[in-house]
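Order emerges. One example.
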Amino acid sequence: MLEQVSVPAITGPTACGKTELILSLAEELPLEIVVCDSRKVFRGLDTGAAKPSAEMRERVRFHLMDIVEPDESFSVHDFIPLAAKAISEILGRNRLPVLEGGTGLYLSALAHWFKFDRAPAIPELREVLADKWARDGYDAFVTVALAVFPEAREAVDVHNPRRMLRFLEANLATLPPDELPGVLAALELLEAEGAVRRACLEWNERRTRVSAAPEMSGISTAGFVLEVSRDVLWERIRNRTRQMFASGLVAEVKALLDSGIPADSQALQGIGYREVIEFLLGHTSLEEAESQVAIHTRQLAKRQRTWFRHQLTDFATIPFTSQEER
């Protein structure tokens, strides 16, 4: 078990400047980064996942990037033990581990529970889903579920019903009570509301017990959410999208497909990849693909802000702008 230590955690919406801040801190502190990002774990996803450049990696060491083949699946349950090992090794070198990334589920699992405890199974929900999938088809349900939880594309293998089920149970169990009816209605699962509400109560009690027993986790976390004004963030997203396409995003996606990576693999469901796939299939123009990436990235940033506000209530919010923007 790790000694009691305080580990900084830095997050914020996509393009808010997390890597820039990390590089600045690395000039003053002996730190190493534990990356909490569901895209950066995949090998070969470099431009579209906005991985740090080789020059950046020379300045500071990043962990948990390029650890999974792009045709494999990966989830928070795979991530947690790897992150725990990385943190332990960094501390063993008398250096400071810093959690950094925008995948909220990964970061929250580390920051709040460390040894990740699965949300409770909801048998009644599973029965309702089994009937629904048998009646309407699993693919039809996935389309509906992705409209409600678009982040599922990047968090789990949506083509795997078992993983999708666990994703739903985990996310429904952590919803604020007042949001639950609307989400279940959108999923057409209102008949399972009573069971899901009971699971929410059980999960909240479990989280309270874990939070009250820090010796169970081995670490405490000093968390920070970077806050950037909407206009500044939108401009950063526009600029980053243009830079990704100029830096070879289309060629990167084509190379992955040509190497045999399925277009519907978990790795290629992220923003940037699926829009370029549509272009390569001839369904959109290059200009339309670039525009869609920018739009979808803005939508992601809005969802991230909402998620951080509800789920990372113990994190401090700090304004952050670059020197050029001040």
About this structure: The longest strand covers residues 219-227.
